[in-house]
Design brief:
It is a single chain. This protein is of the alpha+beta class. It has one domain: Cyclophilin-like (Cyclophilin, Beta Barrel). The protein contains 3 helices and 8 strands. Strands 1-2-7-5-6-4-3-8 form an 8-stranded antiparallel barrel. A hairpin with a 2-residue loop joins strand 1 and strand 2.
Length: 188
């Protein structure tokens, strides 16, 4: 067997192995389906990039914490935020905050999901937001020096997110008509 054939077989074998491992990763990424009063959307989350954040988020999903919460903050040219308030604008009790994982290589681009937090970088609990535009100013290091942890992206239903971003809002960017998360379910 000549060296050209050996090199070609090695290249084919390497390419095949790479394709298999890439498709296995894509198949293994957990997915959560949100059913809302404006339609459904599904996010895929990346435990290899933000392990503590994804574990935290999926535990809230498994506990059905998000069911019956609302999107309480909508800024149409920025993001839509939910997962922490009841329809009567009462903040739900949460577990302890998680550490910031913003320096994971993921960017706050349109369609990505990230954790909301206070000015304390290690204060994220249950609230999340979906970026409706590319928000480079939220990437680590952001103007506050820390950034916001992106941990997944919308893989279906971005049209629902666009419906949410278009709703009229009142004081403190609260939608004037409620947008309810009916359920958040781990589908994969």
């Amino acid at each position: 067997m000549n060296m050209t054939r050996i090199s070609r077989r090695l290249a084919i074998g390497f390419t095949t192995a790479l394709l298999i491992s890439t498709s296995s990763f894509a198949e293994s990424a957990p997915q959560v389906k949100f059913q809302t009063s404006l339609g459904d959307f599904t996010v895929e989350v990346y435990p290899d990039k933000a392990p503590k954040t994804v574990e935290n988020f999926l535990q809230y999903v498994k506990d059905k914490f998000y069911n019956g919460t609302i999107f309480h903050r909508v800024i149409g040219n920025f993001m839509v935020q939910g997962g922490g308030f009841t329809p009567d604008m009462q903040q739900k009790a949460t577990r302890d905050p998680i550490p910031l994982e913003a320096k994971n290589g993921l960017k706050n681009d349109r369609g990505t999901i990230a954790m909301a937090r206070t000015s304390n970088p290690n204060s994220a609990t249950a609230q999340f937001f979906v970026n409706v535009v590319d928000n480079n100013g939220l990437n680590a290091p952001s103007p506050d020096g820390f950034g916001y942890t992106v941990f997944g992206k919308v893989i279906a239903g971005m049209d629902t997110i666009d419906k949410i971003r278009a709703v009229p809002t009142g004081r403190q960017d609260v939608p004037t008509s409620q947008i309810t998360i009916n359920s958040a379910t781990l589908v994969k």
